[in-house]
Amino acid sequence: MSGINNEYKIYLKVLTPLHIGGQQEKNLMEGIDTLFVNNKLWKINWNKVYAEFSPDEISEAILRKDGLYDLLHQDIELFGSEYSEGLGDTGETKTIIRDGLGRTFIPGSSIKGALKNWLSSAWENNKNGTKNLLGNFETDLFHFIKTSDCYISDIKVFPAKTFNLHEQNGNWAGGWKHSLQNNTNNSFSSEGFVTDYECFSIDASSQFKLKIESPSKKNFEEKLFDSPIRKLKDEIERTFLPDKKKKLENKLKPIENGKKVYDRFYSENNNPIQTLFSNVNHEVIKHLKKEITFFETFETDRTEEIISQIDRLIAFSKDIKNACILRLSAGSGFHGITGDFQFVDHTKTGVWNYGKNKGKMKYKSRKIAFTSNEMFPMGFVLLSTEPFEEKESTVLASANQPLKREVSNQPTPQKEAKSVVAEKKDASQVKKGDIVFGKITQIGKPFCSVKLLLTNYDFGDADLSGTKKYPIEIGQIVKCQLGDSSADGEFKQVRFVP
Q: I need a surface site. Which of 68, 271, 319, 436 has the fewest CB within 10 A?
């Protein structure tokens, strides 16, 4: 195809944690690829391990629970490198895609796919979706658009939690998922069904090339659109066979769609890159506003922080020229992946008409990345044809603060322990899922023992789970999430809340 190639240098800045997944078998498994030692996460260097220990020693350690930890933890600095710490407890760290040289990057196909997704959403006027909206294989608008890979080396591990809806007193309510099966409640916890993701760091920046081929008018439209359309219309008019007519009409429609989009794309403002970015940006802002309504409707623990981040993205995306906010890849969810044109309101997403969920609303879960004091919707970047100025630097600067694994009521240093005020609750007024205070009475594996600080409670210590990755001491006051109670009101097991 003859034409003029307009090549643009596009500047990219990461606005919220961005994960581009690689091969699943390359994800890091805790206890095999990583170890948690001295309150730090370490990535194991297996070449050094095999140089020091025999295959029998290593295989025996791997097969034994905590065996690899016992083998390596005393000399972990020799056998591992300190890894950017997360808080995940699913035993897996999802790694970013890397090229053959081990370099991390955003594939050009991911950027191009996201741009196509949001432009399609901006121009879609059918809530059920128009087949071949941008044309067929030969006429698809994005055949004229090419994107190169974007290399970024600034990586950080972010833990991510699932925000779900659950039924509460007969109504739908927002909540956080704490295990694989049926354990969603209103309270956020940094433990329980948390997965670590390698992400491109917030405020990381790079650049890539984007080419838009502007086809020469002469003979192009005639060859690609007008001539095929005329021929198909003639065939449709000549045939009397219903099945054949239907097939020809189905073949005609994508070419007609392609011509409409082609004309619109190259005629709007006479500036293809501005047309692309302005439409994408407009659609992503609409998406963000729908997300605010969703989290306001299903408000629960820490949703205000999510809304605050979305507000900042919206404010940042206003009045920008030849630039756009783009959402892509892991964590962008159903609405982001599909372009989001189906629903005017994310709180009204239809009802299941079949299967085990028949009659229930089609609400979608969200992956939320977090640090010790921030909550982030994932996958947002800024694209611009101009270099970023200082005023356009970090939208979410506080995200670069380090993650904290320490318990909020940790007694070290001692003065912090003295400041803890343990509120006692009446045992008759609490139930499964409630948060209460307890005092550590014994350190052990897999459970510590804790005396629950409840009034009108005459039972012994409870088993406390979830402390493996935290420095716990006897006498320490901690928060506990109550488990099931016996018929006489005893809570035999509780979970540590950081």
A: 319
CA distance linking residue 136 with residue 302, whole number of Å: 45
Query: What is each CA distance from 455 to 417, 429, 474, in whole angstroms?
Result: 22, 10, 21
Tokens of 497: 């809340």
What number of CA atoms fall less than 13 Å from residue 250's CA on the CB side?
A: 7
What's the pTM? Answer: 0.69
Cα–Cα distance for residue pair 224/488, rounded to 1 Å: 79
> What is d(CA 292, CA 408) in angstroms, rounded to the nearest whole number?
29
pLDDT for 84 equals 59
Long-range contacts of range 442-449, CB-CB < 8 Å, 24 or more positions apart? Answer: 442/474, 443/472, 443/473, 443/474, 447/493, 448/472, 448/496
- Backbone dihedral region of 118: left (phi > 0), alpha (psi from -120 to 50 degrees) or beta? alpha
Phi, psi at 451, each rounded to 5°: -95, 115
Residue 401 · residue 410 · CB < 8 Å: no
| Residues 132 and 242 both lie in one domain | yes
3-state SS assignment for residue 223: helix
Task: Give burial (CB, 10 Å; 0-12/13-18/19+) of 237.
Answer: exposed
Judging by beta carbons within 10 Å of its beta carbon (0-12, 13-18, 19+), is residue 40 exposed, middle or buried?
middle
Residues 6 or more apart whose CB falls under 8 angstroms from that of 22 comprise 95, 96, 97, 98
**Residues 441-483 pLDDT 10s:** 888 766 788 999 998 898 889 888 877 667 788 888 888 888 8
Q: Is residue 407 included in any domain, yes or no? A: no
490 and 342 in a single domain? The answer is no
Element (H, E) at 52: helix 46-52
310-356 confidence digits (pLDDT tens): 999 998 887 787 899 999 988 888 888 888 888 888 988 888 888 87
Residues 225 and 263 sit within 8 Å (Cβ to Cβ): no
Q: How many CB atoms lie within 10 A of CB 350?
A: 10
Name the domain count of the chain: 3
What range does the domain containing 262 cover?
A: 1-27+95-400
If asked whether residues 322 and 395 sit together in one domain, one would say yes
- The distance between the two most distant Cα atoms of the chain, rounded to a whole number of Å, is 91
E-state strands within 138-280: 145-147, 150-151, 155-168, 171-177, 184-185, 195-200, 205-215
- Asked whether 425 and 467 are in contact (CB, 8 A), the reply is no
Q: Is residue 55 part of a domain?
A: yes
Whether 88 and 131 map to the same domain: the answer is no
For 335, phi then psi, to 5°, come to: -70, -40
